[in-house]
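Need the bound structure for adenosine-5'-triphosphate, inputs here:
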Amino acid sequence: MTHEGLILSDLARRFSGEAGIGPLGLDIRPGEIVALTGPSGTGKTTVCRMISGLERPDAGEVVLGGRALSALPVQARGVAHMFESYALYSHLSVAQNVAFPLLAPGKPRLGRDALAARVQELLDVAQIGHLGARKPGALSGGQKQRVALCRCLVQDAAVFLLDEPISHLDAKLRNELRGWIRRRQTALGVPTLWSTPDAMEALSVADRVAVMIDGRIAQFAAPEEVYFRPATTEVARLVGDPAMNLVEGRLEARDGGAPGFRGKGIDLALPGDLAARLSGGPRDVVLGLRPSAMSPGGRDASLKVYAWEPFGKHAIITAMLEDTMLRLKTPRLDRFEANQEIGVTIDPAGLVLFDATTRRAL
Ligand SMILES: Nc1ncnc2c1ncn2[C@@H]1O[C@H](COP(=O)(O)OP(=O)(O)OP(=O)(O)O)[C@@H](O)[C@H]1O
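Answer from helper R.:
Posting the output first, comments after.
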């Protein structure tokens, strides 16, 4: 693969006593945002650190704009890195922290007013324009996170690494900044890597999403592909709000001969295209059921309610299917009581099937 963006090829890092990260491949085109998502500890921060040069890979290469970065020191790589830990300078004010990367040796000198204006513009967008004179010690966690974000975005970089850029902000600010950062980075025409443990944030900000599980990329695809066709049960378990339900069972011929899913009290015909594709005899499978694909009322499965949570425009019902806990998302707001028995209808259009052994989508 060649383009002028960022390319990671067979990048790997092993820490003693750990399973290790990679080898993994990833590319981000100029103007593209790729989100790197996965559970805590999977290696997202380590990937960012290998790109910026803070961590040396044991194998593989990072190529940016056609140039291999491994021989270059951190400051010569053209990487703007927002750290998950913020790493603010405690003796400098907020405005000085943000201006700091522009004052590094070798950077083109901006006039005093131009520098101040550039810093202020970012602080204003992040809604901390009034805090420029404060020291980091006098800021809340969310305010510190925004200073770190501004200090990254202020730079003229060849690639931006945003390691959990908005995770500690309130929901309203997160929504506002998400859209603003996306618009800005796309217009800049440089690659951006956005790391987040929140898979739904990843889907909403990125052109492509890399899902990282146990140090490897389990799926690298467009957001809708990751959402509608998760490559593995592990990806399915991460994506969605709530995430997809997984039910163990078996694919068997039903009355008419076409294969259907049978397991845990569910006996379900498959939609025509899936049935045609999977007509090769009985096999053990895992059924992926989106929470919105099940609705209360019906006889496709019988559940026992564990908890009912009304969220205004929809409700989440947590319920047991034998020994498996499922989540349903329903627009119905009628109340369900703990231990109530309910029948549900399953919409076959919302099904995904996985092989029970490989855990890969069928
Ligand atoms: N310097 C180090 N020495 C030993 N192990 C390390 C070191 N840095 C990271 N690790 C381990 O590597 C794994 C990946 O860590 P990393 O911080 O990259 O994960 P992450 O996906 O960014 O997690 P989080 O979302 O919690 O920030 C973890 O198991 C961590 O304990």
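Comments: The mean pLDDT is 93. Residues 15, 18, 38, 40-46, 84, 197 surround adenosine-5'-triphosphate (CB under 6 Å).
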